[in-house]
Structures are given as C-alpha cells and as structure tokens.
Amino acid sequence: MGDLVKMANLDDIPSVDLMSELLRRMKCSTKPDKRLILVGPPGSGKGTQSPIIKDEYCLCHLATGDMLRAAVAAKTPLGVKAKEAMDKGELVSDSLVVGIINEALNKPSCHKGFILDGFPRTVVQAEKLDEMLEKRGIKVDKVLNFAIDDAILEERITGRWIHPVSGRSYHTKFAPPKVPGVDDVTGEPLIQRKDDTAAVLKSRLEAFHRQTEPVIDYYGKKSILTNLHAEKPPQEVKAEVQKALL
Fold first, then answer.
1. 142 with 245: CB under 8 angstroms?
2. Are 58 and 31 in contact (CB under 8 A)?
3. Which residue numbers are catalytic?
4. Strand order across the 142-147 sheet
5. Which site among 35, 42, 187, 241 is 20 to 30 Å from 178 CA-CA?
6. Angle (nearest 5°) at CA 201 between 217 and 49
7. With contact defined as beta carbons under 8 Å apart, do 123 and 89 qualify?
C-alpha cells in the first residue's frame, strides 16, 4: 500500500523535477562506488570540498554529530542509548557511534558509498570502523588528509568576522569590510564567533594533533592516504581531490 501511495504522489511532482532526478540517477549509476574519509583540522576546507565530492560521486555525507542528534530525535534503539549517555554527561561510546554509522549505510542515498567527516578521531575508532565495514564486505577506499600549517589556519580563522543578522562574512586580510569592524551594507558592528578566537583554535588544534594525527599514520600504513595541500585556494584543492579520486 505504501508503494502505491508513493506512486500516486508522483502526479504532484513537476516533470522537470522528475526528469532531473532520473538524469541524476542515470549519471550516478555509471559512477564507481567510493568510501571516503576526510581528515583535517578545523578550518582546513573539508566543509568546502565535501559537498562537491558528494555530488560528483553520488555519495552520502555522514557527519557523526548530526547523525547522533538525528538518532536521538528519532528515538532509535541506538539513539536511546546515546541519549542515556549524554544525559549522564558521558561521551557516547565508539561502538555506539559506529553502530549509528552502520545503520546509516542502509539508506538508499548511501548505495554508491559515503564520505565520513569528523570520524574517526582516534585509532581505536578507526579500528572499530574497519571491523564494522569488514562485516559488510567493504572497506575504506581513500582517506583525504587536508594538511595545513597551524600558522596559516590561525590567520585564516581568527581573521573571520560576521554580521550576525545577515550572515555576511568578512576576513581582515582576504575580504575586509570597507570600514574595519563594520558591515558594508548596514554599518552595524561585526562580531567574531566564539570558535574563531585564537584561544579556542589553539585548544582544538592541540586536540587534533594529539588524537587524530595517529589516525593519519594508521591509514598511511594501509596505503590509502592522500595528503592535500589545504593551504591552496579552493579550486586548486578541488583539482587535487579529483586527481586523488581517479
């Protein structure tokens, strides 16, 4: 009955949308399956490149934070367990997160593969992920490391200022406002996000180097790691990504 209802509802979908979806699916059917992990510190450009890769290869984008919140909201068995841990102020266990990723891989949108962003952060998580994928008879194809010097990141991130009402963003070096500290359009003051200060960035980078650099070594030993020059402009990084995924 559910399928019949879905079919009946097709009448209400504009032909243009149907055609574009059919064309997208035809294009996707010719693409090779890819299972990718993006690794890199905050501000390294993962967020810029992941939607491009996702669309190009018809992959699903798995951001573990969003997935955890969705599982909790949907009250799935794993979501209920995750909520119990969060309510106690505990970290959600690695096994639970891997279980939520495992569930997500059943979705039709993940049929051609996935991009994992923000996970694994530790070698233990990487090992658990490999075990889960092995049970499915699949493995990670490529790990893209957005390598960038801390000093460049600091300049990139701490120079960001936004106009909170409109979301317009500026950069003191790369895209400065006409008048320092003031929005070009309204003349209202700009603010800096809490996460964009030097102190917050320093602690996040320390955590990245301590926890996640061993993960980069872990995948390097498996010969599936590609180091990208993430300090380059987005178009050049995009070209490097495309070359790595050939």
1. yes
2. yes
3. 46, 121, 160, 193, 204
4. 60-63, 113-117, 34-39, 142-147, 225-229
5. 42
6. 60
7. no
- Two structure tokens written together for 163: 């106009």
Pairwise CA distance, residues 133 & 236, whole Å:
32
Model confidence over 91-129: pLDDT tens digits?
889 999 999 999 999 998 899 999 998 899 999 999 999
Q: Find how far residue 145's CA is from the centre of its chain.
A: 13
Ranges of the chain with pLDDT below 50: 1-7
For residue 8 the two structure tokens come to 């009946």
d(CA 246, CA 243): 5
**What is the C-alpha to C-alpha distance for residues 64 and 44, in angstroms, rounded to an integer?**
18
